[in-house]
Amino acid sequence: MPPVVRLLAKRLGTSLIVLVGVSMLIFTIARVIPGDPARIALGPNATAEQVEALRERLHLDEALPIQYGYFLRDLSRGDLGISLYTNRPVTADIAQFLPATLELIVVAGLMMILIGLPLGVIAARYRGSWADHAVRIFTLLGVSAPSFVWAVILMLIFAFYLPLFPIAGRIADSYAIASVTGFLTIDTLIAGNLAAFGNAAWHIVLPAFALSLSGIGQAARLTRSNMVETYDKPFIEMARSYGFPERRIARRFAFRPSLIPSLTIIGLDFAAMLGNAFLVEAVFAWPGLSRYGVAVILRKDLNAIVGTVLIISAMFLLVNIIVDLLIAFINPRIRYSQRAS
Amino acid sequence: MNRISKSLAAALLAATTLATAPALAETVLRLDEVPVGELDPGKATDYADSILMFNIYDTLVIPAQGGPGYVPHLAESFEADGNDFVFKLRQDVKFQSGNPLTADDVVFSFERMKALGQGLSFLFKNVDGIEKVDDATVRFKLSQPYSPFVASLVRLPIVDKKLVMDNLGEGDGEMKDWGQAFLSANGAGTGAYKVVSHNPQEETVMAKNADYFLGVAEVAPDTVRFRYGLEAATVRTLIAQGEHDISSQWLPPEVLKSLAADGAQMLKETGGGAFYIKMNTAKPPLDDVNCRLALASAYDYASGLKMVAVTDDVAQGSPSTGGVPVGMYGAKPASDAMNRDLEKAKEHLAACKYKPEDFNLEISWIGEVPIEERFALLMQANFAELGIKSEIRKLPWALFTEQVTKPENTPNISQIFANAVTGDPDTLLYPMYHSSAAGTWQSPEYLKDEAVDAALEKGRAETSDEGRQAAYTALNDRLMEIAPSIYAYDRQSIFAASNRVKVPALSDPAKAFGLDGFGFTFRLMEMTGE
Amino acid sequence: MKRAAYILVRNPLSLTGVILITLVVFGALFADFIAPFPEHRGAVVDFANFNKPPEWPYLFGTDLVGRDLFSRILYAYRISLLLGVVVLAIAVPVGVTIGLVAGYIGGWTEYVLMRITDVFLSIPPLVLAMSMMGLLEPTLTNGMLAVTAMWWPWYTRLVYNLTRSEKEEGYVLAAEVIGASKPHIIFREILPNCVPSIVTKMTLDLGFVILIASSLSFLGLGVQPPTPDLGSMVADGAKYLPDSWWLTVFPGLAILVAVFGFNLLGDALRDILGVDQ
């Protein structure tokens, strides 16, 4: 078996165990709470009989392990139950709201790489200079405020005072774009509608930037410290004495080895972004999972809470597996077993 | 890298110019409300749902424009026959599907409402059944004299039976799911607007129905985009930037103030309801009438009203005069405004069997209505002057409606915006104060008072205006005596609107309807083309 | 000690951190004396002065019921710091102990403990805390509980990795050879060598706990009014943008200042204690 396949199999196996654990944890939390979900779901005017009937249908009268058994049975059929809030299958709800959130996170992730890594490289190459200090302050500020504070500040400056960007939504109403991937920036290109693409891209800039600021900070800091460490190694001195240009040394010898730890951080930051996306979406009225997630949490919509958390966790694990594979791909010498999580 | 950023900049530039390009000839009206938008006529309840119902569906009667009472709409005429009511239907009405409207549809709509037992079906508790007399005549059979019945028909949208039967979903019995799956995503009415797309969390798009039986004026909007859950700051900016037309009534007064200063028009909907601060009479210390009266006298009515003032002459409320809002049967005149009286409050408190230092009031506010937090703080400060401690608790609406089903879980103090869902005082007051209706979001008082019950029953049984007037006057007097609630102010809904739309029903009292939400009949709106 | 002082003074950023945190802690501790309107921490309404932009004597303006924002921010710092300290006081001992045990003992103990840790780590922190807060009553105690539940695994992972490398070191092997007990090795030999890393992380985390707690209350899952809370101030104020900007901007900056300060301080500590990243 080729090592990459073995790595993949092992990571998938562990992830599955972890996911079962996650489902048990969140399932338990969701069921031991006070308040009757059936009564909440049926609304103010329902009769006692209707509430009882719904309780029975949801198996709320059974013992917890039996309820969990029903849940696993349904899950194996790809069924996460009906959301009591929207009266629709949870899977349908998630399928509808997830793409917008994912698009936001992917764009934010790209910003994090395209801005964070170069900043780290600059800081490392000119360490001790004003540029290094400027990058350090910028990156520290980035991680020092919750993304909703950045969202509000960016919105205030670039949408209210200088109306350069739209303040809400994903795309102007006038564009009707067929959904293929659910990512509007991609769907508009598939439709060949450049104006719509521009509009969608224009809408995503501010929220994605607000979301990426803390990631940019972490990516830049990490790249810098790794590169500085590499700069102190003898082979850099040797390269210099051979007359390699500084630019080439930075790119070829110092940057590349520091890419691997940075990738690891990106995987972890994805988790933070999944959470923070809730905050940024709330500020920019981004029609993603956030409003749904908060609404179902406040309404104690059990199926929807369990489903949403499960899907988010699964995505998080998936991204980390992808990151692991990427690292293995970049550097085959890495000992597969060394990286634990 | 450089090339990419250049072409991205070009794309962005293109987007900016396009977004500001002049609108198409087709007129679009954009408005918002809180989620969820419920499209099923059997489940519709709140303001957002009402707007959908009043435009996609029609009802047998509608409120009269510019005055009290109800006029036939899908009905040609109606008459009372003993306790029963007989309706003759118009013959020229077609559903949006093309099916003609017949008595079968009315019977089906009523039976579906009863069978689902959700939404506003409680309005029809006194109706034993419905009978098709012939294709154009139906008879509603009532179990007892019930004068508000005609009014409650504004809450019975007539559904296209054939269309629904063709689209039944999974379920048990002959009627399977009663078309719930279909009707939660599609329209099946005769209304002036058709559903183009519907997402209960985000937006319902509607388009003019060219075949509407009354016709639709040219100036009425061609397309309506009804959005759910926009933030106040978003609405405020969208209206200022010309990308939104009518706000919801839930904008905080400060935001309305800024919009008014920017030149937005303020649309107004008066009457029908009030802001009630409800006290749980089933649990100490507010089971003692003197403690309740103390709070009612200590509450600062004037500051409360100041909080909801928008401009000098526009406010989200007007002074309350008692349990019945000004303008309804039995209400006191507007000059009799409630006032704070701290001395009287202290007297009442001295007579109360609980000592203020012995209790800690729980003041709740509904998380979806931010202004209630300020009222909670106002009360906390007011009551503190009597030496009463209190604790503020934010409750999401869904949780609140669940907690009030048990008196011991119901907060000492809850804040409710209530209105008469049919325009009749019975639908405002009965669900709040009748002992049989205790324990819903409207009745967290758990009031059990024989005099109140008697007055409420008399009010719905009496058919003459004078009789009803007398019943509700007696009710109002009793409600002042036992103070189950603090009657904070009479509600006035204010909507900020752009100048691209005129809404006579919400700006000209002579064209107003006595039913909340009916002013949002899109066919009566006029796009100005600005 | 001298070296520490030298590092702090030499680096302007570290010095800034020390100053910021001193101000924040000082402001929170002595809010009763510094706040111009100490009574505004609670349920006070003053409709003569509501929604006022920053002007004397309201340094940061007033909120929608007329309370001084500056005073409320000082008291909000008090709650935030208390929350941070309590969360870490619970999360660190729990997380560190589990990490030490799993790392040193190994085998099945390690496998089970670390998989449980992984479960907590695989739910995005904010989502876990949100779910818990949504299901519990929104009180300060429950807020602490929810944040603690998401925080301990990070210490487990940190200490676990440290322990795994430390246990191959000569001094541990020596202790084993002379027959020291497991608890002795874990807590008397290995733990002291982890302390610098733990202390550095704690300083950084104090800022991040404040950040996460404010995120929770931003979503309406935090402490209840009239208790001042930075996150809910931002959330409530955001409805009144852009007109009443001071309602959001000052509480937002207050969060920024505190977290920024703890970050700078954490960096400085890292230099002083010589901890690797």
From TrEMBL, chain A:
Keyword RNA-binding: no
Keywords for the protein's UniProt record, in alphabetical order: Cell membrane, Membrane, Transmembrane, Transmembrane helix, Transport
Domain annotation ABC transmembrane type-1: ranges: 98-327
Annotated InterPro entries: BPD_transp_1_N, MetI-like, MetI-like_sf
Subcellular compartments: Cell membrane
UniProt topology in membrane: Multi-pass membrane protein
CDD domains assigned: TM_PBP2
Name assigned to this protein: ABC transporter permease subunit
